[in-house]
Structure formats: structure tokens, C-alpha cells
Amino acid sequence: MGRKNIILIVSDDHGYADRSLLGHDSAVHTPALDRLAAEGTSHTDAYVTAPVCSPSRAGLISGVHQARWGADFFESSSFPPPTLPTLAERLGAQGYRTGYLGKVHYGLDEPGSRSCPEQHGFDESFYGLGSGQMGRLNYMRHSRAAQAEYKEAAAPMAVAPLFDNGEQVEHEGFLTWEIGRRARDFIARAAADEQPFFLLVAFNAVHNFCWQLPADELRKRGLPHHDDWHPASGATYHDWYDNAIVPNLEHGREYYLAQLELMDAEIGQVLDQLDELSLADDTVVVYTTDNGGSPCNYASNTPLRGTKYTLWEGGVRVPMIVRWPGVAQPGATVPGLASSLDLTPTLLRAAGTKLADDEPCDGQDLSELWTGAGEGHDALHWTTGPWSWSVRQGDWKLSWVDPDSTEAGGLRRVEHAPVGSGHFLANLADDPGEQVNLVESHPDDFARMLALHEQWADEVRTSREHYDPLVPEGWRSRSGASH
Fold first, then answer.
1. What pLDDT shows up at residue 470?
2. Domain ranges, residue 393
3. In terms of CB atoms within 10 Å, which of 132, 170, 290, 351 comes out highest?
4. Is residue 478 part of a domain?
């Protein structure tokens, strides 16, 4: 089969329902993602490992559930430990040219630390650090002049300079277009050198604040200019922020859909370039997002309940599309539990290699699910720390939230995110929107799912205690079974 080029596209806060192919909203326009789905395989039950970006991205880049080193939520998230190779390091060892473009946010990332792409296996990189900027990148402004202009608003409005191969650079202009331009340049140069490549494109779209659009795009769409926060406005940041998210931002959904459409157009140009360079048949393209759609950006997760920040389905179930000519069936829609952790073994297979039996991984090769040789994960688990967790096995899902925790209260108050309260048991086959709590009516299923979670939680605690060295003996086998 030979080694395939690999393009992994990770968007930010894209709602589960927001692809035009799905037909939930006629205003959604995503022809490139629709094309990718027509030419590849879509997963109906694909998940990330956390309902927020930092821990989710840490799990994705390593193939190991980030809870194993304690990266549960914003305040505890961190890059995988140095004993754990990243996907980029593994592919680089196979002779791949590796590139990273876009947002970096694994935790309290510092310039020059291992969490920066040039420090964990990427030969080329152009990125912004979300840490210190409330997890976001400005869509339009990244310069010292912008920092001086915004003053104390510079961090929350995320206007800091970017990094080019680890060196600070300034960029004024629409970041989505610049990421797309650099992606096409990277592909063209790798093709000219006839070198297999791995390109991770981490768009900051469609994270809030989606009104940050080029003036011509605002005019074309009939959308008004909306001001970023500035102390001179007289409003505190938190008061201003409350008016910048659901349900208070006028035209919020329209701004979001504009950003989604413009990102989709850049993806379309990449797909067209692969055709022009006769690379399409030799390139695996994956699209996914880092967590569920957010109340901050007016995303829709229909028909799922909940949003980013929560362990309802809307917080962790995400779009995932894989185009792999000759392997992933065109136009197929595949059920079965899939995870962003699966990208490591799947993409290593595309590179003509695999993990050794004693190497840690919580993922499975997705191609086994596509061909019917596998059924996906038996169970998937989530934790945000001591205040919430959930587990899905088959059609059953059990979650728990401490409603009195500081975290739950803050998310309800600041982010307008309904995180839930207590235990909630759902059968997702009958109730994909998690509306009916079956804890009392199905006590045996409740007890079984609770025991399943407790077993996993014990295993994770053991992993944390023995994380250096990384893996307790017998922790994981390549069969995908947990011990």
C-alpha cells in the first residue's frame, strides 16, 4: 500500500450539527466538508477525550488518554510527559516532513517549552499560543502594535504576536486565510521534494469571537462591525463578555456561520490542490474538532444535549471524517464508538508502520471499524477532575456532576453552560438527546455502568502513580483491551 501523506485538520468548537450535508440548518454552507464526506467515511459516534480544548488536544497528539497524567480540565491540563512520543515524533522517525499550523493550547504553554510544535516533532510550524490569552487567538490582529493599542485588553482579545518555527513574528490580517495559504505552501514544497508529509492544520475557527472578520466579508454578508472589549468602553470584561455569547450577541449565529464558511473554503482549496498535484490518491485527509459546539460561538449540536464544557453528548461527540482512498469507503457513515485517540494507530498504519506491543496507546485502528473487522471501543470514559465524569458503553451512558462544585457553578454563570446535576443514565439509542434519566427505573444498568467507571478510575489513578516510567506493567495491549 505504501506510505501515505497525512493531513489532519482540527477546527475549534465546531458544532456537531453544523455541516450543510446534514440538513439541520439551511444557512450552513460547508461544501468542502460535504465533499470530504462524499469521498470518505463519516463517524456518527466519534468522540474527543474532554469537553474543552486543552486536555482534548493533549490526548489527540499522544494517543493516550490525558487523564493518565492528570490533565483533566483547564486548570490541570498539560502536554504529554516527555516519556511519551507524539504523533509527529513517531511520523518524523519514519521519514515524514512534519508541519503544524494554527492554534496551540495544551495547558500553561510557554514559548520554547515541549508543548510548542518545534519542540515535539514538527519540522515547520506557524502558530499562536492560547495560554495566557484565555485559550483563543484573535482572527485579525497579532502584533506588538495591537498589544499596545489594546493595553490590558490584549490578553483576553488574544492579539499577541505569533510564532514561526519558534521565533516570534507579527501578522496583521485574517488568520484563517494565512493558515490556509501556509498549508498549501507546505504541501507544494513537500510534493516538489517527493517527501511524504504529515501536516496538522489547527484552525482557530470557529472559536469565539466570530465577529472578527475582514471588513469586505462583513459588508458582503450585511453584518455589522462589533467591537472587541476595551477598558475605555466603561464595561468590565465579564459584563462585556456576557453580551458577547449566547443568548445576548446580536447576529451571533451569522458571525459563526461566516467563520465556518471561510474555514471550509480553505479546506476546499487544500483538496483542490491535492487534485492538481495528483496527490489525492496518496493522501489521507482527516477532519475533526477539539470539543463540542460552544454557547460562546452559537454552534449547534442538534440533536445532542449540551455544549462545550459539559459531558453531555453535545460536549464530547464531534464530527469526524476520514478520506483514505482504497481504505475508507466513499460516502459511508459508520457507527461504533470511535475516539480522537484512534488517530495515532490509524495514521501510523497509513504511514506503513504501527506501535510496538509494549507501547502505550488508548486508541484503536479505525480501519478495522470501516471494514467490519472491528466494532469500535467497548467503552469510552471522560473526567474533568473530581467534579464530573461520564462513561459510555454500547447504547448506555452514565454521567455524574457535582452541582455545588465551584467549576459547575462558574460554567453555569459565566459560560451559560448547563452542566447537569448528580447521576444521569441514558440509553442513547432511544434517547440521543439525554432527556430521560433512567437511574431509578434501570438500577441494574446503573450499577453496571457505575462499576465500569470506578474500574477505569482506579486504573487511571494507578497510571498517575506510576507515570514515570509511563506504563505500569500489563496496562495496555495492542488488542485494545484494558487490563
1. 43
2. 381-465
3. 290
4. no
User: What's the rounded Cα separation, in Å, for the pair 324 and 326?
Assistant: 6
Q: What is the CATH number of the domain that holds 129?
A: 3.40.720.10
Could you tell me if 382 and 50 are in contact, meaning their C-beta atoms sit under 8 angstroms apart?
Answer: yes
Q: Are strands 5-11 and 283-289 parallel, antiparallel or unpaired?
A: parallel
Query: Is residue 343 located within the same domain as residue 427?
Result: no
Q: How many domains does the chain have?
A: 2
All residue ranges of the chain with pLDDT < 50 are: 469-483
Nine-digit cell string for 293: 459546539
The reply to whether 287 and 304 lie within a common domain is yes
Query: Omega into 443 within 30° of 0, i.e. cis?
Result: no
365 and 405 fall within a common domain: no
The alpha carbon torsion through 353, 356, 360, 362 (nearest 10 deg) reads 50
Structural contact between residues 99 and 199, judged by C-beta atoms closer than 8 angstroms: yes
Beta bridge partners of 288: 10, 320
Contact (Cβ atoms closer than 8 angstroms) between residue 407 and residue 387: yes
